[in-house]
Design a protein that fits this description.
Elements lengths: L13 H16 L4 H15 L17 H7 L2 H9 L17 E5 L5 E4 L3 E2 L7 E2 L8 E6 L6 E6 L5 E6 L9 E4 L4 E5 L23
Antiparallel strand pairs: 1-2, 1-9, 3-4, 4-8, 5-6, 6-7, 7-8
């Protein structure tokens, strides 16, 4: 990654929306017959809405309507989890969070990370060196913004979480760079929810951004 360049998930609105904009002038110059044009518009609309949740995939285990998600998620949570957005660095709720407990998917409540695996990566986003279970997260290639990254998503509902990098601490050497907006937190004990430290590893520096 080039120094000073901020890595982002994708353009606002998703890849499908970008494709629709780029094809606009072409459609105006050589408009196809009405039936074909209608089919093409429907395909582009479907692509624009496919980002984030796996609601259109056969392997999606938990399905929510977009109407429901817009009602119970904040605009930022919806943008990050459903449109593969990115929250601002160092401004997320859990970036410096040190309480003991479990971090869950904000969309479906699936347990994702234990506080014991959270560490200070100095990247600006919550970072973990391991997942709570091997099947909690799915991995997908992400070639947006002229670079190759591995996107991480909730395996149950398809919510976008962030990206994984190979610059984490031992024992895994992995860094699950995650948006706070994709997470909810369940304290291990209400009496000490604000105590303790989730930083089980030394601080890491010089990390690629989310």
């Amino acid at each position: 990654m080039l120094p000073g360049r901020r890595a982002r998930h994708c353009h606002p609105g998703g890849r499908g929306a970008g494709a629709a904009r780029s094809l606009g002038p072409l459609l105006m110059r050589a408009a196809p017959p009405p039936p074909l044009l209608s089919a093409l518009c429907l395909a582009l609309a479907a692509a624009a809405g496919a980002a984030g949740s796996c609601r259109d995939k056969k392997d999606c285990k938990v399905v929510f309507s977009q109407e429901e998600l817009r009602k119970r998620l904040t605009p930022l949570q919806y943008h990050v989890t459903q449109e593969k957005g990115t929250e601002s660095a160092f401004e997320g709720e859990y970036t410096h969070h040190k309480a003991q407990g479990i971090y869950k998917c904000v969309v479906c409540g699936t347990p994702l990370f234990k506080s014991e695996t959270k560490f200070d990566s100095n990247s600006g986003w919550p970072s973990f060196y391991d997942v709570i279970s091997p099947d909690a997260i799915t991995f997908n290639d992400d070639f947006s913004y002229g670079m190759h990254r591995i996107e991480i998503s909730c395996s149950q509902c398809g919510a976008h979480l962030g990206h994984i990098f190979d610059d984490g601490p031992r024992p895994t050497g992995k860094r699950y760079c995650t948006n706070s907006a994709s997470l909810s937190f369940k304290p291990a004990d209400k009496n000490n929810a604000g105590e303790g430290s989730g930083n089980a590893s030394p601080a890491q520096t010089g990390k690629a951004e989310l």
